[in-house]
């Protein structure tokens, strides 16, 4: 099927077409003139592909196409080889030919990776020249790794026993690469076995299709092989997985090429047929069937070529290729469906063995089980998808937590300063807990060291304030270098790294590093030397990497908190909160209001998203209440309208009533409509008739929280819910101590663990439960329902 391309744009399909053209030019005549003649009778009479065809394939450079140059190959890559295999399968009338050519190449590569030079020199030259044919024996049961075949070392020889039930090319093979299990170590090993070795029996397999591929069972009975024929000395299973990965994608290539051939032949066969004076090809149902075949074919080609393109990636998994698995599964499913369509279109001819359609159907069914059954492929993809997504989330969470752990050191320095400045102060006990958890109590804070710490923190806060006011310094001030020793020095460097991260986030530098940047590109409006200093500190903390061109880029695990959206605002507010609360500890001057509380302010977009898209299904009946005409949502956050706005955007058809002890700033609610009531957070009334009450607990003393919960409970309609975002302290000691200090600075003397649930029950609410929690955000959502 011809394709036209814009000459100014090099597409993947254009590259494929160029290689296909080369394959036709170099190998097409050989297939059409030498392989295809006699193919029908070979298949009919169960005759193997003639071995002399492999020798001829070597003479024209086909076998050597993708093999390395040092063994006489052309060194072409797997992308190019896959396209060649696809084109061979399209042109060939013998489905076994392209398979046996590829297995010869793939197994030769297996032997080239051997630990034994003698083995390579003995066999590989003859394989490359087409003088020997090799087959591989691995599978024994439905479980591809369940090996009953064994190897036992006796002196200098290995004794092999077992049966390989399905060996492609086994009848034609001069030698076999056999995978067996070591009786002593239970490790999987691989050996070269020659067909004439005593104890080797090759038994033909009668199959529905693929009759020219020489499918066989190979029985090993006390077969003795010398030690030099051991392919690898350990972990042959990993090597087999690499081989299977390659064969899976080449199987998909072969199927896809055969599909293109049968579709073209089907259309050609129909082109001369007429019915009722009209061409068969002009009937809508025929056009529709051919359209479906084309769709299936092109989808298969797209998945196959995507998988082939992935073979050129240095990050490709050595043992399992997801794209190859998708390609093989899709190609096999498409082949079965195309076969059905062809049979329908060809009518009675489709069932007669002298026509090609019946043979195609039989051969396609044989391809389905190759390189893993369809069900096995789906299970493997499912396992890989689950592990991949869970691993991605774990890595992303770990990156955020690593920043949070940097903040622990920031808190530790401020706590160490505070316990010396005011050992009996309001926050002294909480500060001492941080100092102890950070193992700084033994550092002996003498006056000189304390004065250095004070000066260091003065510089840190002055720099942060200058950046926030838009007056970034020309360079970073002096950091911890040379100021401290021992444990304190390490903590100071980590704290300095956290400060660099907070400043880089505030200025947009971190977001700019989502793509590789030079210092000048990363700086934007910041002084270049200041930016260079920040990048150096961030690189030292492994938050930023440099590439081979000297450009900087952020740790990609942090991408989700830098691209914008709820996670980004929550990440930024955690950094700002630690900076502001630490400054409050030093100066005694309270930080901003409740907008800096956990669960309030810029945490609220993420929590609003979680409420609707993750937790709503766990709050029975709430979704229906929220879309009832006149439904109201009450927000008792007191954070200047930020939480109310987040709720309004996530629940757009309910009216929002926000309780605000302070007058919200003009336009605080932006483009959404929020009704504001100027009162304390216990200001809901029974006539408010709320479907949902939202009550962040951070900063509320127990008595105030009790009053607020009671008011919310009274204002809820029957079946309405109250949801309380609660601070969730880290589990590691220093993080937990720092979180406690931060909450005390926010004025929180709230309930202990479990007391929130008790207060909800005390208010007459039921179905009390935790509906969601996130250790990274440090928030837990507790909910209860009014009966």
Task: Describe this structure as you would to a colleague.
The chain is 50% helix and 14% strand. The protein is an alpha/beta fold. It has five domains: 1-131, Butyryl-Coa Dehydrogenase, subunit A, domain 1 (Orthogonal Bundle), CATH 1.10.540; 133-234, Beta Barrel (Butyryl-CoA Dehydrogenase, subunit A, domain 2), CATH 2.40.110.10; 240-386, Butyryl-CoA Dehydrogenase, subunit A, domain 3 (Up-down Bundle); 411-587, no CATH class; 594-785, Vaccinia Virus protein VP39 (Rossmann fold, 3-Layer(aba) Sandwich). Strands 1, 2, 3, 4, 5, 6, 7 and 8 form an eight-stranded mixed beta sheet that branches. The chain has a seven-stranded mixed beta sheet with strand order 15-14-13-16-17-19-18, with helices on both faces. α21 (642-650) links the parallel β13 and β14 (655-659). α4 packs parallel to α7, α9 packs antiparallel against α10 (356-368) and α14 (486-506) packs across α17. The radius of gyration is 36 Å and the shape is elongated.
Present the secondary structure layout.
Layout: H1 12-35, H2 39-44, H3 51-59, H4 78-91, H5 95-112, H6 117-128, E1 134-137, E2 150-154, E3 157-167, E4 175-182, E5 188-194, E6 200-204, E7 216-226, E8 230-232, H7 236-271, E9 274-275, E10 278-279, H8 284-310, H9 322-346, H10 356-368, H11 374-421, H12 428-437, H13 447-468, H14 486-506, H15 509-512, H16 519-523, H17 528-540, E11 544-546, E12 552-554, H18 566-587, H19 604-615, H20 622-626, E13 632-635, H21 642-650, E14 655-659, E15 674-677, E16 690-694, H22 702-715, E17 716-727, H23 733-745, H24 755-762, E18 766-774, E19 779-785
Parallel strand pairs: 1-4, 2-4, 13-14, 13-16, 14-15, 16-17
Antiparallel strand pairs: 2-3, 3-7, 4-5, 5-8, 6-7, 9-10, 11-12, 17-19, 18-19
Helix pairs in contact: 1-4, 4-5, 4-7, 4-8, 5-6, 5-7, 7-8, 7-9, 7-10, 8-9, 9-10, 9-11, 11-12, 11-13, 11-14, 11-18, 12-23, 13-14, 14-17, 14-18, 18-19, 19-21
């Amino acid at each position: 099927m011809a394709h036209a391309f814009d000459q100014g744009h090099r597409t993947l399909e254009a590259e494929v077409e160029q290689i296909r053209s080369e394959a036709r030019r170099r190998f097409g005549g050989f297939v059409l003139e030498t392989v295809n003649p006699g193919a029908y009778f070979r298949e009919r009479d169960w005759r193997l592909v003639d071995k002399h065809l492999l020798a001829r394939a070597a003479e024209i450079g086909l076998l050597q196409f993708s093999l390395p140059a040092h063994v006489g190959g052309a060194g072409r890559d797997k992308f190019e080889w896959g396209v060649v295999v696809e084109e061979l399968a399209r042109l060939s009338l013998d489905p076994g030919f392209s398979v046996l050519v590829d297995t010869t190449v793939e197994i030769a590569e297996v032997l080239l990776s051997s630990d034994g030079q003698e083995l390579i020199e003995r066999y590989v030259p003859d394989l490359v020249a087409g003088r020997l044919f090799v087959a591989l024996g691995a599978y024994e049961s439905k479980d591809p790794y369940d090996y009953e075949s064994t190897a036992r070392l006796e002196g200098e020889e290995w004794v092999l026993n077992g049966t390989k039930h399905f060996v492609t090319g086994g009848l034609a093979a001069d030698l076999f690469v056999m995978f067996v299990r070591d009786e002593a170590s239970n490790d999987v090993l691989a050996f070269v076995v020659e067909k004439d070795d005593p104890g080797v029996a090759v038994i033909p397999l009668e199959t529905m299709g693929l009759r020219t591929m020489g499918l066989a069972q190979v029985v090993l009975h006390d077969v003795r092989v010398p030690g030099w024929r051991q392919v690898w000395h350990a972990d042959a299973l990993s090597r087999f997985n690499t081989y299977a990965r390659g064969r899976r994608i080449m199987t998909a290539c072969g199927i896809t090429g055969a599909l293109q051939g049968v579709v073209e032949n089907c259309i050609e066969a129909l082109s001369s047929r007429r019915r009722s004076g009209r061409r068969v090809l002009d009937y809508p149902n025929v056009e529709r069937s051919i359209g479906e075949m084309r769709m299936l074919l092109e989808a298969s080609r797209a998945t196959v070529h995507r998988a082939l393109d992935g073979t050129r990636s240095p990050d490709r998994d050595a043992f399992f290729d997801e794209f190859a698995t998708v390609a093989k599964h899709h190609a096999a499913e498409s082949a079965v469906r195309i076969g059905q369509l062809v049979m329908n279109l060809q009518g009675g001819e489709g069932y007669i063995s002298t026509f090609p359609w019946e043979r195609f159907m039989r051969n396609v069914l044989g391809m389905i089980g190759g390189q893993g059954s369809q069900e096995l492929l789906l299970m493997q993809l499912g396992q890989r998808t689950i592990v991949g997504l869970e691993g991605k989330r774990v890595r992303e969470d770990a990156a955020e937590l690593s920043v949070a752990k940097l903040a622990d050191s920031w808190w530790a320095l401020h706590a160490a300063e505070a316990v010396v400045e005011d050992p009996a102060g309001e926050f002294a006990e909480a500060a001492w807990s941080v100092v102890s958890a950070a193992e700084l109590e033994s550092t002996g804070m003498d006056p000189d060291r304390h004065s250095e710490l004070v000066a260091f923190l003065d510089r840190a806060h002055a720099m942060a304030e200058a950046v926030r006011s838009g007056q970034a310094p020309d360079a970073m001030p002096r950091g911890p270098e040379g100021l401290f020793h021992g444990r304190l020095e390490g903590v100071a460097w980590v704290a300095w790294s956290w400060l660099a991260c907070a400043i880089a986030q505030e200025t947009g530098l971190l977001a700019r590093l989502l793509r590789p940047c030079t210092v000048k590109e990363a700086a934007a409006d910041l002084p270049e030397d200041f930016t260079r200093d920040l990048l150096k500190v961030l690189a030292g903390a492994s938050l930023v990497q440099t590439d081979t061109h000297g450009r900087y880029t952020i740790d990609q695990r942090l991408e989700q908190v830098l691209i914008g959206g709820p996670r980004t605002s929550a990440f930024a507010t955690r950094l700002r909160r630690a900076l502001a609360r630490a400054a409050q500890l030093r100066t005694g001057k309270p930080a901003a209001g409740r907008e800096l509380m956990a669960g309030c302010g810029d945490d609220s977009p993420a929590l609003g998203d979680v409420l609707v898209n993750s937790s709503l299904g766990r709050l029975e009946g709430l979704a229906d209440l929220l879309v009832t005409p006149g439904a109201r949502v009450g927000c008792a956050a007191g954070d200047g309208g930020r939480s109310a706005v987040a709720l309004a955007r996530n629940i757009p058809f309910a009216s929002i009533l926000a309780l605000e002890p302070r007058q919200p700033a003009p336009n605080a609610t932006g483009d959404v409509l929020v009704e504001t009531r100027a009162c304390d957070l216990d200001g809901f009334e029974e006539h408010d008739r709320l479907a949902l009450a939202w009550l962040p607990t951070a900063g509320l003393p127990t008595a105030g929280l009790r009053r607020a919960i009671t008011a919310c409970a009274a204002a809820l309609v029957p079946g309405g819910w109250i949801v309380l975002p609660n601070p969730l302290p880290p589990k590691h000691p220093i993080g937990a101590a720092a979180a406690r200090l931060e909450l005390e600075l926010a004025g929180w003397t709230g309930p202990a663990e479990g007391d929130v649930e008790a207060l909800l029950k005390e208010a007459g609410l039921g179905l009390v439960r935790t509906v969601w929690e996130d250790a990274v955000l440090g928030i837990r959502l507790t909910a209860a329902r009014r009966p």
